[in-house]
Amino acid sequence: MLKTQGKLFVAFLRIGLLGFGGGPSMIPLVHQEVVKRHAWMSDDEFADTLAIGNTLPGPIATKMAGTVGYRIGGLLGCLNAVIAVIVPVILAMIALLGLFTRYSDQRWIQGMSEGVVPVVMVMMSQLTWDFFAKSRIGLGWIVTLLMGAVAGALIYWLGIHPGLVIGAVLVTALLRPERRSKATRQETAK
Amino acid sequence: MIYWHVFLAFFIPNIIGYGGGPAIIPLIENEVVGHYGWMSSQAFAETLALGNTLPSPIATKMAGYIGYDVAGVPGALIATFATVAPSLLLMLAAMGTLYRYRDSIKVKSMSQWVRPVIMVLMGYLTWTFLVTSIAEAGIVHTAVIGGIAAALLLATRLHPAFVVMAGLAYGAAFLG
């Protein structure tokens, strides 16, 4: 029992510490540990768990960690795996930014925090483009831009909370008639 | 009250954020910078940049740090809990029901339909960072750093962490 919890902790600690590039890029690492190294799940079970995780919002890496942990070690295993995958790096993050804030009156530290803004801006524009490109494949560029324009007007012009706009979109996607749209068929076929 | 706000600020982005960590970022920014005003957008950019140099999911790193910054250790715990627990609990509780829908076209189309909205939020956040940067570092430095960063990210396969470090180094050398 204790040995299993230990293994679980080490496996997800490794995933957390090696998983650069955010949640989705960590999936192959989770697969490596869970299916290949420890055989806690078969390939099919892993694929199903991943697919189920993707039907829900929120970060995927913690959903995977929690589900695998729960199956292997119950509630304790669930907590154990989630903690292993996120807590060490959160502590590192707090330490790193704490150091930054502590010396923020130094001119060169202030310069560093100014110098990094354009980098983040470029990364964010890349993400924006990614989402446009993916959306164009699924919905076509006209629908994408139209939906984007309407959403933008609702959020930034009328001041409606983005959560409400996204909520409305999700409800519409779920409640609309079963008839498949052409765009959806294309994406599903891929 | 502050704890309740911290909970909400992370619960809402994560319960509507289809599309993984990156999709959640502009939603978190909307809460912590826009709605509650806990951080300036420069501080948010800095947090995001340093977060990108570290491993593990970006959503939990942002939650842990911002929660800590706003309300100490309890804040960090609450923000992280609000990020991880809701969808994980739902997943554990409804595994069987969700299993039936794992290949459902409607469910798949949910994340597809949300993408244009997230795209606009990201575009707006890009714009906010641009305005912030011009105000703080000036238009010339913004253009130089942005140009170099774009070239490095698009033309080379360099890991984003190194590009962030290059930005930090440039800032320390020329903006200090």
Automatic annotation (TrEMBL), chain A:
Membrane protein topology class: Multi-pass membrane protein
Transmembrane segments: 72-100, 149-175
Subcellular location: Cell membrane
Taxonomy, superkingdom: Bacteria
Keyword Transmembrane helix: yes
Pfam families assigned: Chromate_transp (PF02417)
Keyword Secreted: no
PANTHER family per UniProt: CHROMATE TRANSPORT PROTEIN-RELATED, CHROMATE TRANSPORTER
Family classification: Belongs to the chromate ion transporter (CHR) (TC 2.A.51) family.
Name the record gives this protein: Chromate transporter
Organism: Modicisalibacter muralis
UniProtKB/TrEMBL annotation, chain B:
Organism the protein comes from: Modicisalibacter muralis
Keyword Transmembrane listed: yes
Transmembrane segments: 7-28, 76-101, 113-131, 137-155
GO cellular component, one term: plasma membrane
Keyword RNA-binding: no
Membrane topology: Multi-pass membrane protein
Signal peptide location: none
UniProt subcellular location: Cell membrane
Family under the similarity heading: Belongs to the chromate ion transporter (CHR) (TC 2.A.51) family.
InterPro entries: CHR_Transporter, Chromate_transpt
Primary subcellular site in the record, as a coarse category: membrane
Top-rank taxon: Bacteria
Protein name, per record: Chromate transporter
Keyword annotations: Cell membrane, Membrane, Transmembrane, Transmembrane helix
GO molecular function, a single term: chromate transmembrane transporter activity
